[in-house]
């Protein structure tokens, strides 16, 4: 990025600023980006390595392991700290802050919360989001906390069911918080905007709907910002500044469960929806949507797809199903480039041109993001089952966890 700074600076301060910028650039070049939100630094489940990503997993060493309790909260990072959540399977949930070098707990914020096991082990679904000096976290039963990054001190807390006049959804609150300027955005059937500094509600989208368990996504189309989100019976778009509803599409899924985040591409013109009943791409024109293609055999209830080089990569199948396929598709037409059977369920991100996949059995896999064929590079068992939480790559490290609360950090040799 090229920046044109016209600020006048005293010569001595100019030297300090140059040194600080140089140090920041060295740190960034050495370690790469933070993963401070659920969708990562580019809000699309992809990231870049600074000095090259080692694709041979045998050349990675376990830096540390720790336990955080049951749940599915993705690891997020901010500088030299990593964050996640877990439940003690008795009465309390907690937000954890770790030192990424040692795995030592820097602070832990614990609070009484429901486990809510239902067709799974229970525990928090949503991931911790870091914005400057604050941490935002949503519990399974709807407690939204704002904490200080340095200490875990509570800045403010909102009880979502009371604030919104709604019941806790069947599988708990699943939306990770997302930051939009001064707003903190959540999805729970409706879209809710909070003042991120105070917790005061700015607005709530008008129509009350069944909650989904995915996270909304903010996107820009034709110089205007929108929020795309799933609800329990469909997909909808609202304006990001006001929550004014723009358009909606009703859908039918198995058991009314929708857990994925919409994937927006091509400048907001196309939106990929991945459900447990079908997948489709919608075309958005700023006011309305229409189906561009649909495939009822392409199904996934939990795992987001990734796009690398204009190719969509994902998993076609259900949790705990060894027959789940990994695939590559043309996102504009739905054309299948390749599909590999019996890969098994899992989750994936992309680091540079490499797919980083964690199977639900606990195997970490690297494969080349290649349109022509599936090209696996390496595979390594790193965790015990069950792993429904995606791995992340941040600050030169791979982080992963399982639902029992085992967290692992790997570093390149």
Number of helices: 2
Helix content: under 10%
Strand order of the largest sheet: 1-27-28-29-30
What radius of gyration results from the CA coordinates? 21 Å
- The CATH class label is Mainly Beta
Low-confidence stretches: 1-30
Describe this structure in words.
With 413 residues, the protein is mainly beta. It has a single domain, classed as YVTN repeat-like/Quinoprotein amine dehydrogenase (Methylamine Dehydrogenase, Chain H), CATH 2.130.10.10. It is built from two helices and 33 strands. The protein has helices spanning 11-31, 160-164, and strands at residues 46-47, 60-67, 76-78, 81-87, 92-99, 105-112, 129-131, 134-138, 143-148, 154-159, 178-180, 183-188, 190-195, 201-204, 217-221, 224-231, 234-239, 245-250, 263-265, 270-274, 279-284, 289-295, 306-308, 311-316, 325-329, 336-340, 346-351, 354-359, 363-368, 375-381, 392-394, 397-401, 406-412. Strands 1-27-28-29-30 form a five-stranded mixed sheet, with no helix packed on it. Strands 2-33-32-31 form a four-stranded antiparallel sheet, with no helix packed on it. A four-stranded antiparallel sheet has the order 3-4-5-6, with no helix packed on it. A hairpin with a 2-residue loop joins strand 3 (76-78) and strand 4. The protein is globular.
List keywords for this structure.
413 residues, mainly beta, 5-stranded mixed sheet, 4-stranded antiparallel sheet, 6% helix, 44% strand, disordered N terminus
Structure, briefly:
With 413 residues, the chain is mainly β. It is built from two helices and 33 strands. The strands form eight sheets. A five-stranded mixed beta sheet has the order 1-27-28-29-30, with no helix packed on it. Strands 2-33-32-31 form a four-stranded antiparallel beta sheet, with no helix packed on it.
């Amino acid at each position: 990025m090229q920046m044109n700074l016209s600020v006048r600076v005293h010569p001595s301060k100019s030297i300090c600023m140059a040194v600080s910028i140089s140090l920041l650039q060295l740190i960034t070049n050495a370690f790469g980006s933070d993963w401070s939100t659920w969708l990562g630094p580019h809000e699309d489940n992809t990231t870049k390595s600074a000095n090259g990503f080692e694709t041979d997993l045998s050349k990675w060493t376990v830096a540390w392991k720790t336990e955080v309790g049951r749940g599915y909260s993705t690891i997020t990072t901010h500088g030299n700290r990593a964050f996640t959540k877990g439940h003690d399977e008795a009465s309390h949930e907690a937000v954890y802050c770790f030192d990424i070098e040692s795995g030592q707990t820097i602070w832990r914020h614990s609070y009484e919360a429901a486990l809510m096991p239902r067709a799974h082990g229970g525990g928090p679904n949503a991931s911790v989001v870091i914005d400057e000096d604050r941490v935002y976290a949503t519990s399974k039963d709807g407690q939204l906390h704002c904490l200080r990054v340095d200490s875990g001190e509570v800045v403010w807390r909102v009880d979502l069911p009371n604030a919104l006049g709604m019941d806790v959804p069947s599988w708990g609150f699943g939306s990770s918080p997302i930051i939009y300027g001064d707003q903190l955005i959540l999805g729970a059937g409706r879209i809710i905007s909070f003042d991120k500094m105070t917790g005061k509600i700015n607005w709530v989208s008008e129509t009350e709907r069944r909650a989904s368990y995915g996270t909304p996504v903010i996107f820009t189309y034709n110089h205007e910002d929108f929020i795309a989100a799933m609800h329990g019976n469909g997909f909808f778009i609202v304006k990001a500044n006001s929550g004014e509803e723009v358009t909606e599409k009703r859908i039918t899924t198995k058991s009314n469960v929708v857990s994925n985040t919409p994937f927006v591409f091509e400048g907001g013109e196309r939106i990929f929806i991945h459900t447990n009943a079908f997948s489709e791409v919608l075309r958005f024109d700023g006011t309305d949507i229409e189906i561009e293609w649909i495939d009822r055999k392409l199904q996934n209830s939990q795992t987001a797809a990734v796009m690398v080089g204009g190719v969509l990569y994902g998993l076609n199948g259900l949790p705990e199903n060894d027959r789940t396929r990994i695939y590559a598709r043309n996102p504009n037409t739905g054309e299948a480039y390749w599909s590999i059977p019996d890969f098994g369920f899992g989750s994936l991100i992309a680091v540079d041109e490499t797919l980083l996949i964690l199977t639900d059995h606990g195997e970490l896999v690297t494969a080349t993001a290649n349109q022509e064929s599936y090209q696996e590079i390496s595979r390594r068992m790193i965790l015990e089952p069950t792993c429904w939480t995606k791995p992340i790559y941040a600050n030169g490290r791979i982080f992963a966890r399982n639902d029992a609360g085992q967290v692992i950090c790997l570093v390149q040799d």
